Amino acid sequence: MNSATLKDDHQERRKKLSNLLLSKKKPMDRAFFGIVLGAAGYTLFLVALIVYAVGDGSTEIFSYEGLEFFTGTDWNAVYGREAFGALPYIIGTLVTAGIAMVIGVPVSIGIAVFLSEISPPRISTPLSFVIELLAAVPSIVYGLWALFVFRFWIVDLIEKPLYNAFGDWIPFFGKTPFGLDVFTAGIVLSIMIIPIISAISRELLKAVPDTQREAAYSLGATRWETLRIAVFPYVKSGLFGAAFLGLGRAVGETILVTMVIGNAVGVNAIPTSLFSQSQTLASVIANEFNEAASSLHLSALIGLGVVLLMLTMAINIGGMLLLSRMVKVSPGVRE
Amino acid sequence: MSRTLKGPEEELSPTLQVSKVSESVEIERPTEVKDIPPAKLSIRNLEAWFGTKRALKGINLDVRENSITAFIGPSGCGKTTLIRCLNRMHEMTPGASAKGQAILDGMDMYDAKVDPVTIKRRIGMVFQKPNPFPTMSIYDNVAAGLKLNGIKDKKLIDDIVRESLEGAVLWEEVKNELNKPGMGLSGGQQQRLCIARALAMQPEILLMDEPTSALDPIASSKIEELVHGMKKDLTVVIVTHNMQQAARVSDYTAFMYLGELIEYGDTKQIFENPRMELTERYISGKFG
Amino acid sequence: MEKIQQEKANLKYQLQNTMERKSSRKRKINKLVTILCIICVGLAIVPLGSILFEVIKNGVSALSVEFLTQRPGSMISGRGGIGPAIQGTLITVGIASIIAAPVGIFAGIYLAEFAGNGPLPHAVRFFNDVLTGLPSIVLGIVGYIVIVLVIGSFSVWAGSFALSIIMIPIVVRVTEESLKVVPNSIREAGYSLGIPKWKITLHITLKTAFSGVLTGIVIGISRIAGETAPLIMTILGTSLFFTGFDDPVDALPLRIWRLASQPYDSAHAQGWAAALILILIVLLFSVTLRLLAARKGFKVRVIRYSNV
Q1: pLDDT by residue (tens digit) across C130-178?
Q2: ipTM for the complex?
């Protein structure tokens, strides 16, 4: 074949292809955009649906109890003597989550510091894998372990010694401990929230530019001083944000708490000491939902869900705002 | 060559001010050429923006058929923006826009009725850094444009893949490993793979945006040879910041500065006998 | 003159002295902090070790083919198994992922490839994060109200719907992050060939980010496989095998919960064994994920989304 025919060949193929290629219409682009937009819209729809569903489900209780639902301390589903007050459970939720924070936050930050500042990668890589595993354990398994194993450690190693030493004269420790109480629930919750807080904290610490650290080291600062002067100020609001997200998790955790908190009802659920039985908003719902005696009772449980929803939303949005001030949403690698 | 000049608005020293050639409607045509080939692509009053910043100011220029046209100029002069306007790629950058005319065989590609997607099927593009599709084999990289545009004829695709790889002088090196990932090739081979990928679409024009800037000299010279051989089938537009390269490969050269077309003409004339003082200063390495 | 020099030397000596003393104190504090950090790590690892140890120790003895395939027997006898629970978990989680994976991927594509920075994508991102943080029990209530009350029965649908709400935001977020990591030059190469955007997105961009997207799905699945709370009021739990999508089913976490609340040792042993199976399933996913990540060299901030 000489070059002239080759060229003709080429021209012909080009024409053939052009016809094929140029005949294509593009309604699919629009359809595809419709699909992805629809999916994004569905996530918004879900939020609206959640708000609507719990709002609708709780109208009965709010019209029955009014604002006293938030302040009442009685919880009685017996027909004719119905009274539903969420206050004890709100307190129970805040107390257990508070205990979880007091223990979980410092430990998590300690882990983050160890992983990002102290240990060599040789250790920190497998170690962070192990911490991630902690996150992968389902909460029901934590619950099982807490109920049959850990609770006895707590009683023997912490609660009994504290009770024996202070129980007589400090009401805070004044209740014979047997392990199913706010203290145990708080501690197990703290273990559950450690992976999340430590993972975010570690990311934050990693994001601190090394120049910050070098500046401090060059002044002769020790590692601790470097952390204190150069690193922590840089990530302070982010660490708060991480703690908030952990708090949101602790407040909303259900099954684990249900298994170890002792499930006191009504006014008895207001903890009077560290070793009191109690209940959280979530655990009451889990315990009573399928045994609800009346539609009012069910509505009251959904009302607890409303309180829980508002509480966690407020906490999480707070945490997101604190974090977003720290970590700018990365626009990704463009070119 | 230093690449210090940043944007059109910066560092415009008074001595470099020239008469605003491109603002006149008079069309820049290659000068001192016998047998000027017909215009394949006519650019008329083309303007381009990034947001509110004007990156191209009224460009007028005719790209000649079956020839190689080089755009040269210092960094930030708009040569990349210009070439990206020639297949309507520029406006895909968020915030970027363009207006004016670019007439391809009598059809203005900036006409509202024209689908920018189909334009790109007629005008191929090769980028600064080799960018083969990471998940695809060598074969699939070349075939991607055809397959994803709905061509199913296996025999036709096979033929075109081979022809395109031959056209990109890559066939001999990869013919036994067509199923290996394209990312496994060397930088120069990857760039030739990208050229083959563009050739597979049987483009009428091939736009090359600094195709050798990420390659070593040997790989670069291979690409230059290849480009030189392509013009019998294609019209090539090449952006380069390497003046020697422009002088070696191109038939026509356009010199741009601060978003304007300063001078356009036969490559030999531009390099040996530039009409504009600014061109001469740039060619002789006094700035840029 | 001499006196001044004397004083200067004195001052310098004092300064050095204090710095020396301080620096020994500094070093002690530094050491203390390091030790405290190591203790923190220990505090996290001991429970994990203990959990794994106890689950294996107590669980293995109750494992048998019968246990894995049979229906639950009487609680006291310790006979019977968790067959329906395993089956129910697979079905419920399977349907939830069939709903959540496409929705999450497409919404992630919207955010990464189409949305830009307008108010709508902002709202989608924001509420997606809000969804991520919602307590799962509230989502169970939603499943109850929206589906159980409507079709009049505790059902697979309700459970899968509730679980899908947990999974969607995880997939959305990871998909968006993975797509954003794909270099823009890849998309441009596609555009330059005149390929329509939807095909570039599905066949080139998404394929390039595939291991990341898969990671998101795996995280989501292993997360919802362990959920208990939202199942209480949606699938209810039963001792029967699957009878239909409109009927109650069992699930491993629910079964563990029921077994643990029995006063019998044999039930507890079965609970541990069921927990072992659940952990194996979840770990299987996590390990697959790790391998995927290692093979593709893919790193997304996985943990952040697996937890929230």
Answers
A1: 999 999 999 999 999 999 999 999 999 999 999 999 999 999 999 999 9
A2: 0.89
pLDDT, averaged across chain A: 88
Q: Choose among C183, C191, C196: nearest Cβ to B89.
A: C191
Interface A-C, measured as beta-carbon pairs within 8 A, has a size of: 304
How big is the CA angle at B261 (ends B39 and B95), to the nearest 5 degrees?
100
Other C-beta atoms within 10 Å of C95: how many? 18
Residue pLDDT, tens place only, A190-245: 999 999 999 999 989 988 888 888 888 888 888 888 888 888 988 988 999 999 99
Both tokens of C189, joined, read 């190469």
Tell me how crowded residue C228 is: count the other CB atoms within 10 A of its CB: 28
The CATH fold assigned to A87-287+305-326 is MetI-like fold (1.10.3720)
For position C94, what pLDDT does the model report? 95
Counted residue by residue, chain B has a size of 288
User: How many Å lie between the alpha carbon of C15 and the closest alpha carbon of chain A?
Assistant: 15
Contact across the interface for C303 and A199, Cβ inside 8 Å: yes
For an interface test with B, the pick among A13, A20, A30 (most B C-beta atoms closer than 10 Å) comes out as A20
Number of domains in chain B: 1
Which long-range contacts (C-beta less than 8 Å, at least 24 apart) are formed by C253-257?
Answer: C253/A138, C253/A140, C253/A255, C253/C89, C253/C226, C253/C227, C253/C228, C253/C278, C254/C85, C254/C228, C255/C72, C255/C82, C255/C85, C256/A140, C256/A141, C256/A144, C256/C228, C257/A140, C257/A143, C257/A255, C257/A259, C257/C228
Please check whether residue B236 lies inside any domain of the structure.
Answer: yes
Contact check, Cβ <8 Å, A20/B151: yes
Residue B27's pLDDT is what? 57
**Cα C287–C288–C293 angle (5° rounding)?**
95
Global confidence as pTM: 0.87
Measured between CA atoms, the residue of chain C closest to residue B143 is C193
C186 with B134: CB under 8 angstroms?
yes
Bin A119: left if φ > 0, else alpha if -120 < ψ < 50, else beta.
beta
Contacts of A16 (CB under 8 A, 6+ apart): none
CATH of the domain at B277: 3.40.50.300
pLDDT in tens, B29-54: 555 555 678 889 999 999 999 999 99
pLDDT, greater one: C79 or B229: B229
Pick among 1.10.3720.10, 3.40.50.1220, 3.90.226.10, 1.10.150.20: CATH of C65-307: 1.10.3720.10
Report how far residue B179's alpha carbon sits from residue A326's, in angstroms, rounded to the nearest whole number. 45
B44 within a domain of the structure (yes/no): yes
Q: Nearest residue on chain A to C43, judged by CA atoms?
A: A107
A24 closest CB neighbour out of B149, B160, B204 = B149
Chain A CB contacts of B160 below 8 Å: 13
Q: Hey, what are A305's tokens? A: 């869900």
Q: What is the pLDDT of residue B288?
A: 61
* Three-state secondary structure of chain C: CHHHHHHHHHHHHHHHHHHHHHHHHHHHHHHHHHHHHHHHHHHHHHHHHHHHHHHHHHHHCCCCHHHHHCCECCCCCCCECCHHHHHHHHHHHHHHHHHHHHHHHHHHHHHHHHHCCCHHHHHHHHHHHHHHHCCHHHHHHHHHHHHHHHHCCCCHHHHHHHHHHHHHHHHHHHHHHHHHHCCHHHHHHHHHCCCCHHHHHHHHHHHHCHHHHHHHHHHHHHHHHCCCHHHHCCCECCCCCCCCCCCCECCHHHHHHHHHCCCCHHHHHHHHHHHHHHHHHHHHHHHHHHHHHHHHCCCCCHHHHHHC
Low-confidence stretches of chain A (pLDDT < 70) are 1-26, 326-335
Strand B39-50 with B96-104, pairing: antiparallel
